[in-house]
Design a protein that fits this description.
By secondary structure, the protein is an alpha+beta fold. Helix content is 45%, strand content 24%. It has a 5-stranded antiparallel sheet. A 4-stranded antiparallel sheet has the order 4-8-6-7.
Amino acid sequence: MTPNSALTPTHKTLISNNHIIESVIGQFGFLRDADENFRSIFFKHANLARLDAPHPICDQGDQCGHLALLLSGTARVYKLGENGRELTLYRIGPGESCILTASCIISDKPFPAFAICETPIEAVIINTSEVKLWTHQHTLWRNYIFSLISDRLGDVISVVEEIAFRRVDRRLASYLLQPGIASEEGDIQITHQAIASDLGTSREVVSRILKDFEHQGLISVTRGFVHLNDTNGLATKTREN
């Protein structure tokens, strides 16, 4: 997730604190399963990096100089069309890493998208040289990299299927019903542009559909917020032909 020129951590330090080491091991299963030899090698080469939001992590075409394993915060990976429209491919949260970076490191290809911090992030970063060496020498690490690519690839395919085959109003209704997106009071703090980027459509289309939902009494829209009035009605929308 961290090409060389775009990543400028506000802090970058070796990991020597036992509490942080235990936290890192707790978040990544391959380290929990690793023997002491690989753990020693891993933490010898691992650095702790912090970035503020909305700090750009990388641009399309950058070479990948590190692989980042997130400990806290959220990063967004997206494509940018010639018309300026954004399409969110996936987000990376605590305990996760970026498949595009892993793939680019293994294949020596430039990063094919953009990535940005949505919130302040803290991550363990591993240099490209170690990522490649460990992939050849350590089965546990190799399995982690390939399972990472396999799992995330399914997410990207789902995005493509949603855009290609599912109506935008159904997709928007499903988006608003995502677990954890709304507060207990039913409020979602989000802009129309942010929704459009996640759904791969235009802000104008999102605004029109939200207005339709509002006229039907399903939601209420105020500046920067969407309030869910009728979740059952929205659930019905997700199934309409």
